[in-house]
Design brief:
heterodimer; A: 1172 residues; alpha+beta; seven-stranded antiparallel β-sheet; 41 helices; 38% helix; B: 493 residues; alpha/beta; nine-stranded mixed β-sheet; two-stranded antiparallel ribbon; 14 helices; globular
Chain lengths: 1172, 493
């Protein structure tokens, strides 16, 4: 061993020239230690044939694989297996079998001058090594099974989606070769009897799990696997400890097996403690019979038998039923996410009938708010948001999907349909619009619109997200692990992963090409006009098309009128007086130079944002138009007219002020009503300068053409100027957002003509045509000029007006869109690329759709496509889905699932606390047709659910997480409910359901986006008080108070929200204007609705928040606080006004202020924020 | 438990063993989470058990930690990616080859964000000089950095896998390019808790253009409980959201309300026994203390004039310099991880707004003095030994001129293959320059360091074995360094 280590040391020295990390060298050194002696003699001489593993691999390992191996695969090339060598890399095939001269590999190794000689930066291979490789290429055997190899396979691959882990033969490699070695040499210390360092080597799962020092096998990488390193003595102590080392052949067998992915027989089988029995979650749930219990009278339904059986086994008793006020609040929060009204509480308390409880449950299950409450956890799973995510994070229109979920739940759609429509609603025969909207589930993935992204890479990330999310949501499985390698614990192979991914890789998209690295994947959107909108838009579009035809057609009448127009247009230049500024300054340090034609030329510094201010005398009053001419100049970049490298500019604002001559301080601001230009870049229309948009933009042109002059005419809302003369001051602003796009040369002029925009009636590019005599124009010019005339001709004015009106009407229709899936038509079984080690760039063979081999097969009757997948997910043979779903419902009601790790039912997840109950619920759920409301009813009508959550400290300490269910659930409600409870108590909550997302109060500065002027504009009226589920979700800047209460950003699928208690939450309920606003409203409500005594009022406020009556002690506290506040406000009514938000103090203001403070306290009460 | 004052809450927390404490918190991780904010190093040398600690997991005991000097980290994140070739990675050969096309073989098959075809090399227009005893090569754009040259380790051999800003920033912060993993600061506060008694353990301060491209996910907690996410202290409005009482409510009024609130919560605690109520009471008390401690912290006006001159701070202004001074004040108060973002380094050269001739010097002007001052100030206070300072962006920039749309402004495209950072204090060996790139500065040729290596090293400096700081999520133990990462021993003092 010592000898070998020193060889490794030599290699490290040898490799250091290539500038590699010591550890990399060490590893590769270790790997080759057994073979290094071979590399210096030509094997062609010592053997008749050249064998890749025996002769070639050692050479590559010593000189190549640090860059082209498992750790790094530069140029996508790996040289650590014959398949990989034959597959080649970025620059194509490396080897022409039989022809070493034509083989790129030889050319690169020899260095033929066309590309760097390999190894890059290192010493050339020895002659002997080169000779060996040459011989291998020329005479080697290249019969490979891989379709990527030169020996092409015939016919399309047949993939039934039903084989076991990896290619055939690999699983037997473990059984046939590796396990015998381990059994013989290792399991005495690492087996059933003794587990040194808690390591067992007697089952595949145990081997993969490792021991106290961590993993011992890294599948696919024997070099880095501690097991191998121990076996060869690179890490001491060498293994087997105190015994002779394994033979080279044995070590090779272990290494080979690890390098091929360390696969073996069914992993679930191997890991099962009993051996040969599948992990419980992969076995279809049976229908357990009800256990026998002693106290049958406690049981209300089947759930209770299972729970009680466990309790009796543990010698424990269930808790008594909670009081009615607590129960109805619990039910109401659980089923509709809102606290009950006081009336509802009182009615329930007063209702002695045996059906009282059932009635409440019925009412809540049929409430339209039920869908809102239950959509919330589903939207976490669906990662629903209103923006794309990543850097740009622009808005998207996605809310139709949110509303679909709410409606589906309200309509009690069976979970089966609910699933099929979301996964593949578009593929259902004659898919209805709603079924297409449902596919928005997987369109909620993010979209990276950052400049320079590789769109295909991000599309791939979306596919991965779709696979991982589907597996989490329906299968409760961490399939994500299998993206890069076979799942280490659960029976999902890497191939399973890509088969699953293939289901999603057959939907339509295109890549928007915006040039220069800007482009992204665009997936389908569905326009959703109402019947009325549809008819209107169809008719309107048809009429627009017809009228456009009129505009495009010349008539003799128009032709006759055109010369007149041309003459007027030419003449109108004389109607403008060029202003000669007597003062012109730049705020940013630009040097402005006045030229003889009255224009100003910008030179010198070109600041990021500049304002040019000009002052010029005005001789006449009655100015009806101000013109800005923007001119080319040879001194400007590309001759301008702007100063950016392309000659562009961006004008953000023009401000003007006029003062009577000699009275500069009596200036009046001029308001412009309209701005028209003879050329504008798309999206940067001149009218941007004056329109009242929600965010500011401006005027720009396309500097690429050769037009010398562009004109902008600004029309004041009334004529300006003074009889005695005036001074006009004009400020031309450029802004930071379009940095250094200042205007290079420009000129101002004014007119008092009636129609100042006449001068811009001809596009800037046609101006030269206008100035050319008719005879000198070509046909194209004539046509263009005629079109320009038609676009302004008074004869066609009614037509143009009509078109404008129609377009406006079309826009005002406000047709909503939904993000949907659309399957590509294909006759082939959908497929995708395998990705080696999960790397986006490292593509492998083609993989065809299939479901994980370890689960129920795709039924013969189902098509192997996304629709088939959807139906497979909710097939009754599927062992996971029903369990996963009912468990998640249980989690929502009880705070924890029966399987606590609701996202992982695999071998690494927690086992169920009540396995029979879980199975019973799952089978009952299916038996009832996947009826969601019925399973909810079942849970809430159980005695288990109806227990009080109050307990003794001793009891809580015995079972802090309530795993035995010996008491009712008690935990802080989720973020959305915290807010809804507060607004409901304040009487503010809007009951409206669905529609576009809303913008309630949000502190300034939360939306602080690069590249975006998008602002949070607060909604008006009742929309400020919509339920929290409707709050607009911008992924990179989510709504802060919801975040404070653990709401996720919706960037990825969230199965289980954490529940924290933090000071930031305390600050939110105490001080967030939303919560304080609710307190103010609640104060008003108390005064208005409660009786006149302080006791009645305190009681009423208390009950608005927690439903029950306060105890005497609690009431005393509230009243004492009220009195102290009241005296404070009575002493200072100004402060009372501040607290209530009143402008002037009224008689009741101090009282109102005091009740506001009491409400502020009550809304912060632990019990208010808690379901108990 | 009956008289649950803040003090007795502390007693309560001290009285229970760590394990017991977590078991007792019952539902959720509320109390555990709160301790990050209120308890002094509760986790000490140990780590909290996993989120699902009630059922014995396969490996509930964490390996003991080793002693470390570093207690806090200040991470100066230069969002947008500063040009290493104009600041820290001196390339005389590149300067000589300025304007020559880069050999095609180098860029063949490479992906760039904006560069197309065969671009021209761009030598740095800036002079470098050898600084300090160490002789570190530092650009003239950073005139203050030489003052701390012997305290910092310049690393020139970093590389990443991402070349778009948002994913690269997410990768740099979370060890994975797709949003969803916890950030470095979250891992640290999860692993070590916080020593601050009145402040969050993980604070984020922003300056420059606006928030980083990666958004709040840069300081998100991923699958860790949200209490471990960074809390942004803002320079406008409330420094912490909702910190200020509504109009008409003074501190003493708030105190009075909280006293009654506490009594009411305690009454209910007596009847239902849920320990989460104690946690909530404590959280309100902590909020109250934050209401005075945070404004006090944010008010830098009382710092001596010499300090203001040193940092270039102006009280009341939002600036990187102010944030540097705040960072020092935060670690003085025991905050575990302070992260400053300064956005704007994306110098493509499409205009003077983003070129290396005018924009880059401006960014240096905004950041150089204060960055150096921070290290000097920590040192003079004896805090540098236990505070690790990190300066750097999410990737590097190309040795080639981008010339997008034939722009005449000098600029560099995104370059993940090689970039530079510097680190100081907290057990870092000062006065060294580690790693080499080739003559173009294109690839790393010596001492390559990947992001996971950097993370492993940072955790090591904090006394954490990066392979052992794990959190079980979806059936597997996740860690910041995923399945790789090696501590860069050469950086350790």
């Amino acid at each position: 061993m010592n000898l070998k280590i020193s060889t490794a040391e030599k290699i490290r020295v040898l490799l250091s020239w290539s500038g590699l990390l010591t550890f990399l060298a060490l590893m590769s050194g270790a790997a080759i230690s057994a073979r290094i002696s071979l590399s210096n003699t030509s094997l062609a001489q010592s053997h008749d044939t050249v064998d890749f593993r025996r002769d070639i691999l050692p050479i590559f390992q010593s000189s190549c694989i640090t860059c082209h191996g498992p750790l790094k695969s530069e140029a996508n090339l790996r040289l650590d297996s014959d398949e990989a060598v034959i597959r080649g890399g970025n620059s194509g095939k490396l080897i022409v079998p039989g022809n070493s001269q034509e083989s790129v590999l030889m050319k690169r190794l020899l260095g033929d001058g066309t590309a760097p000689r390999m190894p890059l930066g290192g010493n050339a291979l020895s002659k002997a090594q080169l000779e060996t490789i040459r011989t291998w290429i020329d005479k080697g055997s290249f019969v490979l099974g891989s379709p990527a190899g030169p020996a092409a396979t015939s016919g399309p691959p047949v993939d039934t989606g039903r084989d076991t882990a990896g290619p055939p033969g690999e699983s037997s490699e473990f059984i046939a070769k590796v396990r015998p070695i381990l059994s013989e040499r290792c399991v005495h210390c690492h087996g059933q009897g003794v587990q040194q360092n808690q390591l067992r080597l007697d089952s595949l799962a145990a081997i993969l799990k490792g021991g106290t020092s961590g993993k011992v096998v890294i599948p696919g990488n024997s070099e880095r696997s501690p097991l191998v390193r121990r076996l060869i003595g690179l890490v001491q102590p060498r293994m087997p400890y105190g015994a002779p080392p394994l033979s080279a052949g044995q070590i090779d067998a272990v290494r080979h097996w690890i390098d091929r992915g360390a696969q073996g027989p069914d992993l679930a089988e191997a890991i099962s403690p009993k051996g040969g029995v599948k992990h419980w979650a992969y076995v279809k749930p049976g229908s357990p019979s009800l256990p026998v219990v002693k106290n049958t009278s406690w049981c209300r339904n089947a759930i209770d038998y299972f729970v009680l059986a466990r309790l009796e086994k543990e010698g424990r008793l269930p808790s008594p039923e909670a009081d009615k006020a607590t129960l109805i609040r619990r039910l109401s929060l659980d089923l509709i996410g809102l606290p009950p009204t006081i009336q509802e509480v009182d009615d329930f308390v007063a209702d002695d009938s045996p059906k009282a409880y059932q009635k409440v449950v019925d009412r809540l299950l049929s409430s339209p708010h039920y869908g809102e409450r239950w959509a919330r956890p589903w939207l976490d799973l669906a990662r629903y948001a209103d923006s794309h995510g990543y850097e740009k994070d622009d808005r998207r229109v996605a809310w139709k999907f949110r509303d679909w979920v709410i409606q589906a739940l309200n309509n009690n759609m069976s979970f089966k349909e609910f699933t099929i429509e979301q996964i593949a609603g578009d593929m259902l025969p004659g898919a209805r619009v709603e079924q297409q909207i449902a596919t928005g589930f997987h369109r909620n993935t993010m979209l990276n619109q950052e400049g320079g992204v590789d769109d295909e890479e991000y599309r791939w990330y979306n596919l991965i997200d779709r696979v991982n999310t589907t597996a989490s949501v329906w299968l409760g499985s961490t399939m994500a692990c299998a993206q890069c390698h076979n799942h280490k614990y659960d029976p999902f192979t890497q191939k399973d992963y890509y088969r699953f991914l293939a289901f999603f890789d057959n939907s339509e998209y295109y890549v928007s090409d915006l040039g220069q690295g800007e482009g992204w994947v665009v997936e389908p959107e569905l326009e959703l006009p109402t019947a009325d909108q549809y008819a209107k838009s169809r008719d309107t579009r048809a009429e627009i098309a017809k009228l456009q035809g009129v505009l495009d057609t010349s008539t003799p009448e128009l032709e006759a009128a055109q010369p007149n127009w041309e003459n007027e247009l030419k003449r109108t230049e004389q109607d403008w007086v060029i202003l000669r500024p007597n003062r012109y300054v730049s705020a940013g340090g630009t040097t402005l130079k006045l030229l003889s034609d009255g224009s100003l030329l910008a030179t010198g510094k070109n600041p990021e944002a500049d304002t040019y201010t000009l002052a010029a005398p005005l001789e006449r009053p009655g100015i009806t138009g101000l013109r800005l001419e923007v001119l080319k100049d040879p001194s400007l970049p590309r001759e301008g007219p702007g100063r950016d490298p392309d000659g562009n500019f961006f004008l953000s604002e023009v401000e003007a002020e006029v003062s009577p001559a000699g009275k500069a301080d009596a200036g009046e601001k001029i308001t412009f009503a309209k701005a028209v230009a003879d050329e504008s870049q798309e999206g940067y229309q001149a009218n941007n300068l004056v329109s009242q948009k929600t965010y500011k933009t401006g005027w720009a042109i396309d500097a690429a053409d050769t037009v010398n002059r562009r004109q902008l005419v600004l029309i004041p809302d009334k004529p300006f100027g003074f009889e005695q003369g005036a001074l006009l001051t004009v400020r031309i602003n450029h802004e930071m957002r379009h940095a250094s796009r200042n205007i290079g040369r420009f000129r101002l002029s004014v007119t008092s003509m009636e129609n100042p925009t006449r001068i811009v009636e001809v596009p800037a590019s046609l101006r030269p045509v206008l100035d050319t005599p008719e005879s000198g124009r070509n046909e194209e010019h004539r046509k263009a000029l005629a079109a320009a005339y038609r676009s302004v001709s008074p004869l066609l004015q009614p037509t143009r007006q009509r078109i404008d009106d129609l377009k406006k009407a079309l826009e005002e229709l406000g047709i909503v869109t939904a993000m949907v899936f659309k399957e590509r038509n294909s006759f082939e079984r959908p497929s995708t690329d395998f990705h080696i080690r999960g790397s986006y760039l490292n593509k492998g063979e083609k993989v065809y759709v299939g479901v994980p081999s370890a689960l129920n097969p795709l039924p013969e009757s189902q098509s192997p496509n996304r629709l088939g997948l959807a139906r497979w997910l909710v097939d009754e043979e599927n062992p996971l889905t029903a369990r996963v779903i009912v468990n998640r419902y249980w989690q929502t009601f009880f705070g924890r699932g029966l399987v606590e790790t609701s996202e992982d039912f695999g071998t690494q997840g927690e086992p169920p606390t009540h396995p029979e109950l879980l199975d019973w619920l799952a089978t009952e759920f299916m038996r009832q047709g996947w009826n969601i409301k019925e399973v909810h009813r079942l849970i809430v009508t159980s005695a288990t659910y109806r227990q009080t959550s109050a307990a003794s400290l001793a009891l809580i300490q015995r079972d802090p997480y309530n795993r035995l269910l010996a008491r009712g659930p008690r935990f802080r409600v989720e973020a959305e409910m915290v807010r809804d409870i507060s607004n409901a108590a304040g009487g503010l909550l809007s009951p409206a359901i669905g529609g576009p997302s809303v913008f309630p109060y949000q502190p300034e500065g939360i939306w602080d986006r690069p590249y975006s002027d998008d602002r949070w504009i607060m909604s008006q009226g009742a929309d400020r008080y919509r339920r929290a589920i409707y709050t607009f979700i911008r992924r990179t800047a989510p709504y802060p108070s919801l975040v404070n209460f653990d709401a996720p950003s919706r960037e990825f699928c969230t199965v289980r929200r954490p529940r924290t208690n933090t000071p930031l939450q305390a600050l939110t309920t105490l001080n967030d204007p939303v919560f304080f606003g609710a307190a103010q409203a609640m104060g008003r409500r108390i005064l208005k609705e409660a009786g006149s005594s302080a006791t009645e009022r305190a009681t009423y406020g208390f009950r608005l928040c927690v439903s029950r009556h306060p105890t005497q002690k609690e009431l005393d506290q509230l009243l004492a606080f009220y009195s102290s506040e009241l005296s404070r406000f009575q002493a200072d009514s100004a402060i009372a006004c501040q607290v209530t938000g009143a402008k002037v103090a009224g008689v009741e203001t101090p009282e109102l202020a005091a009740w506001t403070m009491v409400s502020n306290l009550l809304l912060s009460l632990d019990e208010t924020l808690t379901k108990e | 438990m009956k008289n649950c004052t803040p003090d007795s809450m502390q007693d309560f927390l001290r009285a229970v063993t760590r394990r017991h404490f977590f078991r007792q918190t019952g539902l959720g991780v509320g109390a555990a989470a709160l301790t990050v904010l209120i308890n002094r190093s509760l986790f000490g040398a140990d780590l909290p058990p996993q989120g699902t600690a009630n059922v014995p997991g396969p490996d509930p005991e964490k390996a003991p930690h080793f002693a470390s000097k570093a207690k806090s980290i200040i991470y100066l994140f230069m969002a947008g990616a500063p040009s290493q070739l104009d600041l820290l990675d001196h390339k005389p050969a590149l300067q000589q080859l300025d304007g020559k096309p880069i050999p095609e073989s180098v860029v063949k098959g490479e992906r760039f964000a904006f560069i197309r075809g065969v671009p021209k090399l761009l030598g740095s227009p800036y002079r470098f000089s050898q600084c300090g005893d160490s002789g570190a090569q530092i650009s003239e754009l950073l005139p203050h950095l030489p003052e701390i040259a012997d305290d910092i380790a310049v690393v020139r051999s970093l590389s990443t896998t991402q070349f778009n800003h948002a994913p690269a920033q997410i990768f740099m912060n979370t060890g994975h390019q797709i949003v969803g993993r916890p950030s470095l600061g979250s891992w640290l506060t999860y692993g070590l808790g916080s020593e601050a008694s009145n402040l969050p353990g993980f604070v984020v301060l922003l300056s420059g253009e606006n928030q980083p491209d990666g958004g709040t996910a840069c300081w998100g907690s991923g699958f860790l409980p949200t209490v471990y996410q960074g809390v942004q202290f803002r320079s406008q409005g409330d420094p912490v959201l909702f910190l200020t009482n509504p109009e008409g409510i003074q501190s003493q009024d708030r105190r009075r309300l909280l006293d009654y609130l506490k009594t009411l919560n305690e009454l209910h605690l007596q009847s239902v026994s849920d320990p989460e109520i104690s946690t909530r009471i404590a959280s309100y008390e902590m909020a109250y203390r934050m209401q005075s401690s945070v404004p006090e912290l944010m008010d830098i006006s009382k710092e001596p004039e010499s300090i203001h001159r040193m940092y270039g701070t102006e009280p009341g202004k939002a600036s990187f310099a102010n944030n540097c001074l705040l960072a020092r004040r935060l670690v003085e108060r025991g905050v575990r991880f302070v992260q400053l973002y300064h956005r704007g380094w994306d110098t493509h050269g499409t205009s003077s707004h983003d070129d290396i001739a005018s924009r880059l010097p401006k960014l240096c002007l905004e950041t150089d003095q204060a960055s150096a001052a921070l290290v000097k100030d920590l040192k003079q206070r004896g805090l540098l030994d236990n505070t690790l300072v990190i300066w750097g962006g999410e990737f590097g920039r190309t040795p080639m001129n981008e010339e997008r749309n034939r722009s005449k402004f000098l600029g560099r495209d995104h370059h993940p293959k090689a970039f530079s950072m510097w680190l100081a204090g907290g057990g870092i060996k000062g006065g060294i320059t580690l790693g080499q790139t080739d003559d173009f500065g294109y690839t790393v040729v010596e001492d390559p360091i990947e992001i996971h290596d950097l993370h492993a090293t940072v955790l090591h400096l904090m006394g954490i074995d990066h392979t052992k700081l794990t959190y079980r999520f979806q059936g597997r133990d996740f860690r910041l360094t995923d399945v790789s990462g090696n501590v860069v021993n050469k950086l350790l003092a």
